[in-house]
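Need Phosphoribosylaminoimidazole-succinocarboxamide synthase's 3D structure for a figure. Predict it.
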Amino acid sequence: MNLLRTGKVKEVYEVDNDTLEFVFTDNISVFDKIIPSNVPGKGETLCRTAAFWFQVCRKAGIKTHFTELIPPNRMRVKRVEVIEDTNRINTSTVNYLIPLEFISRHYVAGSLFDRVRSGEITASDLGFEKDHEVKYGEKLPTPYYETTTKLEKVDRLLTRKEALELSGLTEKELDGVFELVAKIDDVIASEVGERMLIHVDGKKEFAMDSQRNIMLIDTFGTSDEDRWWDEDAYAAGECVELSKEAVRQYYRETGYFDKLMAARKNGQPEPDIPALPNEWIRKVQDLYIEMFERLTGESFR
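Structure prediction for Phosphoribosylaminoimidazole-succinocarboxamide synthase:
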C-alpha cells in the first residue's frame, strides 16, 4: 500500500482507486500540536470506537464511508478526493471531502467558555436571555453549531458565508449537513445515556459521494473528537472530563497554553509542546481504555 498522508494521529494508505486504509497511531495532539509522547493502546481504542459508531449510524440509516474494521487499529473506508485548492470545488463537484469541520455544542465548556469570558460570544448568541450570566458546565438552551477549516494548519472559525465559499455547498446542502449532525448527536446521546455519560460537544466531517449525497467520514464520537462528562458527577455539580480535554487542561495548568496562544496572537514562533510526564501517560492510557468500554459497552481485552 502507498502512504498518502500522515496526520496528527493517523496514517492514510491507498489500497486501490476506491479504498483507503486508516492506521491509528498512539500519537496524541492538542491545540494542533503533536505531543512528543505515545499513549500505548490509544490508537486501538480510537479505531474500535469509531468503527462502533459507524455501525451504529449505519443501522440508523446514515450514509458513511466505513467499510471494514481490521483489528486492532486499522479500518478501511471508501475513498474520496481531497481537493486542497478549494477554488476547484463548486456545487456540481462529486466524490470529494467537504473541507470543513462541523462542531456541535450542547453544554458550555472548553473554548466556548473562553470566548464567552472574553466577550467574543454573548449569552444571547447561545440562546440565553440577554442578561443571563453564562456559567461553565450549564446546558445550552439549543445546540450551538459552528464550522472551522479542515485543510489549514490551524483550525479557523468560519462565518456561514466563508463556509459556503470554501465548501462548494449550496445553502440547502449546508443546512442538510447540520440537520444530519443533529440526527447523529441524537443517536449518540441515546446510546451513551444508557452508560451514564453526557455528550458535551464534538466535531464531525463529511464528504459528497459520487451522486453528491452527504456521507459521514473520518472519525467521530471518540475521546479525541468529542467531549464527555460523567452523568453522576454532573448531577452532583462536577464536570469530570472523560476525553482528551483532560490533557488540554494539563497544558493549561502548566502555562503552556497561554504561551502558545500569545505566540500565535503576536505572530511569533510557537513554543514546542513538552512531553507528558510518565504518570500522565499512564493516566491518559487508562482514560482511553475506560472510555472505549463505556462508549461501546465492549471489553477492551
